[in-house]
Design brief:
Ribosomal Protein L4, Chain: A; alpha/beta; 206 residues; 7 helices; 2 domains; elongated; six-stranded mixed β-sheet
């Protein structure tokens, strides 16, 4: 499958042949959903906690006699019924992460890339080396390319001047090819890949 390659100045830079095993799949929502859930669950802090009966202060002596008061029998001030008592079955710190096999995560990434191509939301640029390091000029170049909320995937390292210029654009996210992931791809309006990123992806899924 061939796709046009552009420069940052919106000029033609030839074409690139995309691998159908990576960009030509029929996207499956169930696979993408599982990958997104995996990512979001893994990044949850899991630090929420409440005080249990062993954590609160309170007497464990019997507060009044067992019978004759007309009240319920109690032998501990820490129980949840009392003000200042513990929380019953409250949350405790834990990891929310769950397992997803490496092959399945790779499959999810291929489906996400295919989904962007099928939705006509994939842009290929030659490289990011022509950036001046100025946010104003990069914003003008992005407007020429019709890019708003975009995810830019560069090669093994992000070009320093390009990364510096894109840092002040709130809706532009720039990642090296090692950081490409399903969640960021799906939540961006446009996916921008450099030729170096495509070569790295094809080598990764070979």
């Amino acid at each position: 499958m061939k796709l046009d390659v552009k420069t940052l100045d919106d000029k033609s830079a030839g074409t690139v042949d995309l691998n159908d095993n990576i960009f030509g799949l029929e996207p499956r929502a169930d696979i993408l959903h599982r990958c997104v859930r995996y990512q979001l669950a893994k990044r949850q802090a899991g630090t929420h906690a409440t005080l249990g009966r062993s954590d609160v202060r309170g007497t464990t002596a019997k507060m009044f006699k067992q019978k004759g008061t007309g009240r319920a029998r109690h032998g501990n001030k820490k129980v949840p019924q009392f003000r200042g008592g513990a929380k019953a079955f409250g949350p405790s710190p834990r990891s929310h992460a769950h397992d997803l096999t490496k092959k399945f995560r790779a499959l999810g990434l291929r489906h996400a890339l295919s989904a962007k191509l099928k939705a006509d939301e994939l842009v290929i640029i030659e490289d990011t080396g022509a950036a001046e390091g100025k946010t104003k000029s990069l914003k003008a170049q992005f407007e020429k390319l019709g890019l708003g909320k975009a995810l830019v995937i560069d090669g093994s390292e992000v070009n320093e001047s390009f990364g510096r210029a894109a840092r002040n654009l709130p809706e532009v996210n720039v990642l090296p090819v090692q950081g490409i992931n399903v969640y960021d791809i799906l939540r961006s309006e446009k996916l921008v890949l450099t030729k170096a990123a495509i070569e790295a992806l094809e080598a990764r899924f070979k």
